[in-house]
Amino acid sequence: MPIERVDTTPYADQKPGTSGLRKTVAVFRQPHYLANFVQSIFDTQPQLAGETLVLGGDGRFYNREATALILRMAAANGIGRVVVGRGGLLSTPAVSALIRKRGAAGGIVLSASHNPGGPDADFGIKFNVANGGPAPEAVTQAIFERSRTIDGYALVTADAPDFDRPGTSAFAGLTVEVVDPVADYAALMERLFDFDRIAAAIRGGLSVRFDAMHAITGPYAAEILARRLGAGADAVINAVPSEDFGGGHPDPNLVHAADLVAQVMTAGDGPLFGAASDGDGDRNMIVGRGMFVSPSDSLAILAANATVAPGYADGIAGVARSMPTSRAADRVAAALGVLAFETPTGWKFFGNLLDAGQATLCGEESFGTGSSHVREKDGLWAVLFWLNILAARGEGVADVVRDHWRRFGRDIYTRHDYEGVDSGSADTLMGELRGRLGDLLGTRVGSTEIAAADDFAYTDPVDGSRSERQGVRILLADDSRIVYRLSGTGTAGATLRVYMERYERDPARLEDETQGALAGLIAAADEIAGIRRLTGRERPDVVT
Ligand code: G1P
Ligand code: ZN
Fold first, then answer.
1. Quick check: 449 pLDDT over 90?
2. CA 250–ligand 1 middle distance (angstroms)
3. C-alpha distances in Å from residue 331, one per residue of 266, 372, 452
4. Mean pLDDT of the chain, nearest integer
5. Residue nearest to atom 5 of ligand 1 (CA)
6. How far apart are alpha carbons 147 and 23 in whole angstroms?
7. Which of 86, 440, 502, 525 could form a disulfide with 453 if both were Cys (CB 3.0 to 4.6 A apart)?
8. Which atom of ligand 1 is nearest to the CA of 346?
9. What distance, in Å, lies between the first and last C-alpha atoms of the chain?
10. Which residues crowd ion ligand 2, with CB under 5 Å?
């Protein structure tokens, strides 16, 4: 089959953010835009030649077109084999698992994660390396550099091969293997967790509702939760992936999964356990009757109870959390005598720690938890881990959380997001803060004062690489904390994220309502950074 070399000119905006290149569909549909980026991957990753590449996405609008184009380009660029999910579908953790299982040299994930989908919404592409995880910064930087000078790309002129039926075929020297997106992933989950025990608990009355949010985890949850664990078809709602996620916002949190939260939280005939996942299946939300589990707590609770799951029966080596994630996990690590790590935001920073066997569990406050079984966060994995814990302890979510707080204390936690803020104002806010770090020391905040303030920088303990300017941390003398950073995943304007937490040990106050319990800190966060003054916003758009 003939190969064509297409002349192109660079786009200036192909710098990957926190998690790959994320733009509106309109941007991706500009002439040669996606091809330029894909060619930049192939040009800078010569180790892919002759080797296996895993390819799949979350099924959002443009997924199919992108899959077809990448197959044609992979063939023209000497890739040996592409393992592609049927229909171009694979959840992000399933891509990671397949890369590892097949010894692939890398993978491409087509997703904008929790961002809305559709012709007027977002699309994204992310390159993962041979360990199954997102490419580290040096790699994404090299891809970006290449995209700035690219002048041509190669593709096979013929139409892409069919990727809707499982099986292996040859396409211009490339082997194309179409796989069932769910099978390998489900087998991996069955090795990690005690399916018999979970199924018995479900038969015994542990009612489950999982909201797939019209996104990729629908087929996975239908197979694993509904069928293998016997929760029944009704247990999985919004189970059919759609190109625009049913017009919704596939982000499992208190705002976008509010219906599910309401069904589970309130007494009545609703389910006892609720969970949801995002567009590409790597995020999770856990909620039980009368108890929403903050993601930071979830990480700590998984760590404290890890050994109930067969895959973690020998214990964990360490726990890693992103900097803005609460310090609840650190307390568990200290009690267990295992390592604890604080990394910049973004899953790519966990890869080295997992590869080196220094961390077993990782988590972010942004509804992300995962482990050494793959190199991405994993939504359904977290759900199954919770079910395994509930089944093993014979308790509900609220009992497990309350018991955890009694043992370790509670890191009362919230994140306030100001979305679509004018970029200039957001930069001014962060710039002013950074410029005043030294002056802030000793500033009174309510009954306490600022004890430390810095711009978080991280030196990777495994490869020594350095990442700077990862967010401003304000530590108060009473051990409360405020963190400010700008989102690296948005596609319009800037999103300011403000993270606030306070450690509470008083048994009488462990269940205080979160926003009320943090009111003083919330006011201080505004005062210190001038949020209202500089953004013109009276209140955050999303509170989680
Ligand atoms: C957000 C989250 C971050 C997560 C990323 C990808 O990034 O805050 O924890 O790793 O999405 O899911 P941000 O928009 O804050 O840069
Ligand atoms: Zn995601």
1. yes
2. 14
3. 31, 20, 20
4. 96
5. 346
6. 15
7. 440
8. 10
9. 52
10. 113, 278, 280, 282-283
Would you kindly state where each structural domain of the chain is located, as residue ranges?
3-181, 185-408, 410-543
The CATH architecture of the domain made up of 3-181 is: 3-Layer(aba) Sandwich (3.40)
Does the structure show a pLDDT above 80 at 486? yes
Residue 19 Cβ inside 6 Å of ligand 1? The answer reads: yes
- Active-site choice (19, 91, 96, 113): 113
Residue with the nearest Cα to atom 4 of ligand 1? 346
pLDDT 10s digits, 118-171: 999 999 999 999 999 999 889 999 999 999 999 999 999 999 999 999 999 999
Q: How far is the CA of 282 from the centre of ligand 2 (A)?
A: 5
Tokens 């005043």 correspond to 436
Residue 446 CB neighbour total at 10 angstroms: 13
Considering just the CA atoms, what is the radius of gyration of the chain in Å?
23
Does the pLDDT value for residue 267 go beyond 80? no
- Any atom of ligand 1 within 6 Å of the Cβ of 44: no
Selecting from 3.30.930.10, 3.40.120.10, 3.40.50.300, 3.30.1490.10, what CATH number does the domain 185-408 have? 3.40.120.10
Q: Is 169 a catalytic residue?
A: no
Find the range with the poorest average confidence among 16-20, 380-384, 510-514: 16-20
User: 410-543: same fold as 3-181?
Assistant: no
What is the second-level CATH architecture of the domain 410-543?
2-Layer Sandwich (3.30)
**Does 491 score more than 80 pLDDT?**
no
Largest Cα–Cα separation, the chain: 74
